[in-house]
Amino acid sequence: MTKFGKRPLDPFAAAVTAFLVPGAGHMLLGRKQKALLFFCLIVATFLAGWFISGCENVYFARGRWHTLVQMGAGVITFIIGLPGTAPEPGRTVMHTFEIGTLYTMVAGLLNVLVVMDAVVTSIRLRRTTA
Amino acid sequence: MIDLVFLIPLCVVVSFVYEATHTEDMSLILRKGLRLSITLTGGIILFAAALYLLDRFVL
């Protein structure tokens, strides 16, 4: 039993919440400090990548595979990406466009790692409380 | 060469997240994360220095 007297969050729910908002899965599992650390690091990395590319590297377009990786960061990708549009063909983008895209993609991949950690933590907690 | 500088904050973030997924204790996460990020940053600086020397004297 947890300190709230309930069973810990089930692994699927932990995975979904951790995917949608970085660190939310850990927060619901009672790992508040880790949740805060994950949220700050992943969201800051994503936003830093978006800003240093001139706020135009997150958008949904046919054949843009980078967005699939960026989607790992959760809801923030949709908030920023859905209104976003691709840079017009022929226009020069900032020279930090690619490194900004790398930042956002790394943030997405790190959140996948965090989702897996939330699932493992949930399974471990449920075993110990069973 | 200048792009390598952008990799340093990325290394710090990756180090802390990696350590946080492997350790439960917060002070241990901070200590080990700091150590790993210093190691990775040192690696990047050495790599950049090697590239510079190669460019300057060999190529």
Stretches of chain B where pLDDT is under 50 for at least 5 consecutive residues are none
Tell me the β content of chain B.
under 5%
**Which percent range fits the helix content of chain B?**
over 70%
Total beta-strand segments of chain B: 0
Query: How many domains of chain A, as an integer?
Result: 1
Could you please describe the fold and organization of this structure?
The complex is a heterodimer of chains A (130) and B (59). Chain A is mainly α and 130 residues long. Chain A has one domain (11-129). Chain A has helices at residues 11-20, 24-28, 32-52, 66-70, 75-81, 97-129. In chain A, α1 packs antiparallel against α6. Chain A is elongated. By secondary structure, chain B is an all-alpha fold. Chain B has one domain. In chain B, α1 (3-20) packs antiparallel against α2. Chain B is elongated.
